[in-house]
Amino acid sequence: MPRLLSFAILLATWWIASLLTGEAKLPSPPTVLAAMIVEAKSGALFLNLGATLARVALAFTLAMTLGVVIGYLMGRVRLADRLGDPWLILLLNLPALVVIVLAYIWAGLTEVAAIAAIAINKLPNAVVTLREGTRALDAALDEMATAFALPRWRAFRHVVLPQLAPYIAAAARSGLSLVWKIVLVAELLGRPNGVGFEIGTAFQLFDIPLLLAYSLSFAAVVLVIETLLVQPFEQRLSRWRPRAA
Amino acid sequence: MRLEVDITGKIFRNAAGEQHDVIAGVAFALDAGEVGVFVGPSGCGKSTMIRILAGLDHDFRGRVLRPAGARIGIVFQEPRLLPWRSVEENVRLVAPLADDKKLSALFEILELSAHRNHFPGELSLGLARRVALARAFAVEPDFLILDEPLASLDDALAARLREQIATLVDGRSVMTLLVTHDVEDAVRLGDRLFLLSPRPARLLAELAIPTPRRLRRDAEIAAIKSDVMRRINGDLTGRDG
């Protein structure tokens, strides 16, 4: 219920603002909805949303997998930490735009370049979070596993992984929002489809209803994925914890 | 099966880089079926010794001969259970091959049957200690290590748990090493007592108790206890003076 209310307030504010500033600058909700329906009917909306989602899924999976592995290694192995740290600091502070432009220059205006660029932008965050998580592992439980001669994989799965789970969830959460933001820039700069491309086109034509139609559809998809996938997953991971108030 | 230990020195480095001698010299041997007990004041290096004997610390002078392939069951001073696994899962994790009947019997002895599906966070310390005991016994160890398993429990519970440990130890032939600062526990459970000096730990004396655990009368226990006390305190006054 409160969610519906907050949605209604947003809609009302938008409508009033559009009445005050005029349709030309801020189209009213029905105008945007009409643009959305046109795009949906032609199939372009779903095609572009689908393309963007596929890029998000690939880049996110790639960055999370690499990030967890590298972060764990850097947290466990001193040498890996020493070797990786300068790279990590460089990547953490490199603007997303630089990575995307360089990727397109070096790998061409290709799908691989786009996905790699998005993944590289997200990677350092995952690494840093997982490295902290690995450093915070409970040495006492490690000793327990060693004393009972637990096989490596079993110890990792039952002793280490549950301790890393909150860190993985945190990395996934912040990483996903980062990917949502960057994917549109990558599409704007070098892809012939996707929400970012459409928004770029709409911007050049000053077609504000189309621009808003794509932005809002995208926001809606993000919200649905966050509520239906990310939040239940986080709850499942922490089911053994006493519930916070 | 026989455990032979000859630790001639162990230095502990703390985070500030200072070095402390923790163990000065401890040598003993333990056979299968025997319960050896380390008795010594708090902080004398007993837990360090346990970590060496369990193979968790290799940075010491001397040698430890454990029978090859000996299964270790260990109860740490804190229960060290996995908070994200239930009681039963915690036990099964280290003993995946344990059959249901034996496990049920073990839970029965330790009065844990009602708590199988609870998470460690929902247990009192006494219960968590018993789960740690169940875990150590479930692996059917050849070498059982108990580090202060009864510390900070109330007297009645400690006595019951001591009974339960005695039952489990007598049920199978295993080398058992118990660490305690409580002379009562030591005399009631041990076959051989190793009296340790304050840090750095030296072996002050080795006392054998020939009477089987079950047949020890209160008078005998009291006599051994006062003997142990005298030896420990004698050493203390000797040091002070």
Mind telling me the CATH class of chain A? Mainly Alpha
Task: Name the CATH architecture of the largest domain in chain B.
Answer: 3-Layer(aba) Sandwich
Broad CATH class of the largest domain in chain B: Alpha Beta
Q: Give a count of the beta strands of chain B, DSSP E runs of length 2 or more.
A: 9
Termini separation of chain A comes to 20 Å
Q: Unreliable segments of chain A (pLDDT under 50, ≥5 consecutive)? A: none
SSE succession of chain A: HHHHHHHHHH
Rg of Cα set of chain B: 18 Å
Report strand % of chain A: under 5%
Low-confidence stretches of chain B: 237-241
Q: What is the average per-residue confidence, as pLDDT of chain A, rounded to a whole number? A: 90
User: Could you state the oligomeric state of the chains shown?
Assistant: heterodimer
- Helical stretch tally of chain B: 7
Mean pLDDT of chain B: 86
What does the largest sheet of chain A look like? none
* CATH architecture field of chain A: Orthogonal Bundle
Q: From the alpha-carbon coordinates, what is the Rg of chain A to the nearest angstrom?
A: 22 Å
Helix content of chain A: over 70%
Question: Overview of this structure, please?
Answer:
The complex is a heterodimer of chains A (245) and B (241). Chain A has helices at residues 2-21, 29-42, 44-76, 78-93, 96-107, 111-135, 139-147, 152-190, 195-204, 208-237. By secondary structure, chain A is mostly helical. Chain A has a single domain (43-237), classed as Orthogonal Bundle (MetI-like fold). Chain A is globular. Chain B is of the alpha/beta class. Chain B contains 7 helices and 9 strands; from the N terminus they run βββαββαααβαβαββα. A 9-stranded mixed beta sheet of chain B has the order 4-1-2-9-8-3-7-6-5, sandwiched between helices. In chain B, α2 packs parallel to α4 (125-138) and α4 runs parallel beside α5. Classes of the chains: A mainly alpha (245), B alpha/beta (241). Chain A binds chain B through residues 140-141, 143-144, 146-150, 154, 158-159, 162, 240-242, and chain B through 51, 54-56, 71-74, 76, 78, 80, 82-85, 93-94, 119, 121, 135, 139, 145.
